[in-house]
Write a structure and sequence with these properties.
By secondary structure, the protein is an alpha/beta fold. It has two domains: 117 residues, 3-Layer(aba) Sandwich (Rossmann fold); 129 residues, Hypothetical Protein Tm841, Chain: A,domain 3 (2-Layer Sandwich), CATH 3.30.1180. Helix content is 37%, strand content 27%. α3 packs across α4 and α5 runs antiparallel to α6.
Length: 285
C-alpha cells in the first residue's frame, strides 16, 4: 500500500510542530506589498506583518500560488513514492484551487486527489490533521479523502473583526456587505458558509460580541461530542488565549479532544485586518 502525504496551503497556518511530525506540506500564497512579493508565512511572518501594517501607506494585496509551485511539490512527493491528497482554501475566496488543478493536469495517471475545502484557516487545518494522522496509521488515499470531507462537514468557524474595511477593500466581503455603513461601534459576527464569508449578526460592544460568539459556537455544537476547538487571531494573542479557555470551559474535560490556538497567516490577515478573532470547532470525530 502506498503512503499518503498531505499538501495544503499557507492559509491553514497549522503549528509547525504538527506539520513536521505528520508529513504535511504547505504551498504558500503570496503577499504583494508595493514593489515586493512575499511568500505567506515564509518570507514574512504574522509578527512582521502586523508590526508593519499600521504605518503602511499602501495596503498589501494577495495572490494564489503559481501552478509551478504545486508542480514542484507534487513531483517531489510522487518521486518519493507518495500518493498525494491536496486540500486547499475555498475556491470562492482564492484561485489557489485553480493553480492546483492546473498542476495536477501535468501528471496524468498520478495518484493525486484534490479537495476544495470551501473553508480556510483552522477548519481546514483540523480536517488535514485528521487525515494526516490516519495516513500515519496506514490509511489509503481514498480513505484520507473521505476523512477530510467528513471532517469539513462537521466543522464550522465564526469570527469577529474590528472593522469590515479590510474585507471590503480585498473584495472578500460576501454577505457581510449588509453590515457596511452601520454604526461604527457595532461589532459584526461573521461565518464561513458554503465557502463564502456571510453575516451572522451585529453586537453593540466588543465584550458582548465575544460573549455572543461563544453562545453561537455552543449552540451550533449542541450535544455532539467529542469536540475539537480552534482559535485563530490576527495579532490578538491574549484575546485568543482567553477565548480558548472560555470555549473549553463550556464542556467537560473528557469531551474536549484537542485545542489549537494559532495566528492567521499574513494573507488572511490582509483581508481580516488586525484584531480579528476566529472560533472554530470540529465535532464527532
Amino acid at each position: 500500500m502506498s503512503k499518503v502525504a498531505i499538501v495544503t496551503d499557507s492559509t491553514a497556518y497549522l503549528p509547525a510542530e504538527l506539520t513536521r511530525s505528520l508529513n504535511i506540506f504547505s504551498v504558500p500564497l503570496q503577499l504583494i506589498w508595493g514593489e515586493e512579493t512575499y511568500r505567506d508565512g515564509v518570507d514574512i511572518t504574522p509578527e512582521q506583518f502586523y508590526t508593519r501594517l499600521p504605518d503602511a501607506k499602501v495596503l498589501p494585496t494577495t495572490s494564489q500560488p503559481s501552478p509551478a509551485a504545486f508542480r514542484a511539490i507534487y513531483e517531489q512527493l510522487l518521486e518519493e513514492g507518495y500518493d498525494v491528497l491536496s486540500v486547499h482554501i475555498s475556491s470562492k475566496l482564492s484561485g489557489t484551487m485553480d493553480s492546483a488543478i492546473q498542476a495536477r493536469q501535468t501528471f496524468p495517471g498520478a495518484r493525486i486527489e484534490l479537495v476544495d475545502s470551501l473553508s480556510t484557516s483552522i477548519v481546514m487545518g483540523f480536517a488535514i490533521l485528521e487525515a494526516a494522522r490516519a495516513a500515519q496509521q496506514g490509511a489509503s488515499l481514498g480513505e484520507c479523502r473521505v476523512i477530510v470531507e467528513k471532517s469539513l462537514q462537521n466543522s464550522k468557524i465564526f469570527f469577529l473583526v474590528s472593522t469590515l474595511e479590510y474585507l471590503r477593500r480585498g473584495g472578500r466581503i460576501g454577505g457581510a456587505q449588509a453590515f457596511v455603513g452601520t454604526v461604527l461601534n457595532l461589532k459584526p459576527i461573521l461565518e464561513l458558509r458554503d465557502g463564502r464569508i456571510e453575516a451572522v449578526e451585529r453586537v453593540r460592544t466588543l465584550a458582548k460580541a465575544q460573549d455572543r460568539l461563544l453562545e453561537i459556537f455552543h449552540q451550533q455544537i449542541g450535544d455532539r461530542r467529542p469536540v475539537r476547538i480552534g482559535v485563530v487571531h490576527a495579532n490578538a494573542p491574549a484575546e485568543a488565549d482567553q477565548m480558548v479557555k472560555r470555549a473549553s470551559a463550556l464542556f467537560s474535560v473528557n469531551d474536549v479532544r484537542e485545542t489549537v490556538v494559532t495566528p492567521v497567516s499574513p494573507v488572511i490577515g490582509t483581508h481580516t485586518g488586525p484584531g480579528c478573532i476566529g472560533l472554530a470547532f470540529m465535532v464527532g470525530l
